[in-house]
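Good morning N.,

You mentioned wanting to compare the apo and holo forms, so I went ahead and generated the holo version with NAP. This is what I fed in:
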Amino acid sequence: MSKIMDGRKVAQDTEKEIIRKTKELKERTGIVPGLASILIGNDPASEIYVRNKRTACGRCGMHSEEYNLPEETTENELLSLINQLNINKSIHGILVQLPLPLHIDPTKAIRKVSPVKDVDGFHPENTGKLLQGEPGLVSCTPYGIEKLLDYYNIEIYGKHVVVVGRSNIVGKPAAAVMLNRDATVTIAHLETENLRPITTAADILIVAIGDPQFIKKEMVKDGAVIVDVGINRNETGKIVGDVDFEDVKEKASYLTPVPGGVGPMTITMLLWNTLKAAEIFAGDKYP
Ligand code: NAP
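and this is what came out, ligand included:
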């Protein structure tokens, strides 16, 4: 029976550290970390994410601003708002909530955010730094996965990590984070032939594909650590991951639940990055 990696608990503990460091930064420099969230249109899931981020900012003593813009907002209007926030001294992190309406190119929006305020870690300057093993702002979900594994003292060094999924926001940066920790990394995706021998070779299996309960027990090695990034609704409307939790739970050594695993860590690492961006603004060195 696997041990559960409790993302809510780890997120709460990490939040305590963020609260302490935010207070310390304010007392030392007068700077209050500030996060601006831009939401275009009325996607209900995005509205919930932005609301959760605002509440979390409040709990951590951070300043937050929300820009809820109508669906018909033009690309130029968005880019000019990002420009204003780039030079706003009370804002240290800018988050452009994805997905954007189809008439706006997300790549342009991501690139417009100043790399020092790019708390999502999506700007090519930050993803490039991550690949080169240099300090920078690391994408929140992979960063949260690393924190979660460290919390449970799971060794990454020298292990075979298989990442299923190669998106720019999860799969690729997760692979880079693991490589920087001296893991041997394999990335699999939809075009991968014969997936099963690859996933069963994993000491640590990270799954981010968006396919409900796709990973079954035949696809995992005995004692593997399984990190399930997926957030999906099954046919009954229940939130499930990309891993069949009940099926693999006897085989895995550690396992993240959905909900309550990687999800809570993502939002916490967004606050962590906002704090880090504010510390750098204050002239602190990268930790
Ligand atoms: P995405 O952009 O749709 O990418 C999915 C990736 O998975 C693609 O690389 C795709 O391969 C690959 N893939 C899909 N089905 C596969 C299969 N059956 N076998 C092997 N590879 C497969 O998705 P994403 O944005 O990375 O998100 C993935 C999941 O994580 C979603 O459920 C999303 O809701 C969730 N998510 C959760 C969090 C969190 O905080 N917990 C954060 C972000 C995302 P190709 O490249 O070949 O198409």
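The mean pLDDT is 96.

Happy to go through it together on a call whenever suits you.

Best,
F.
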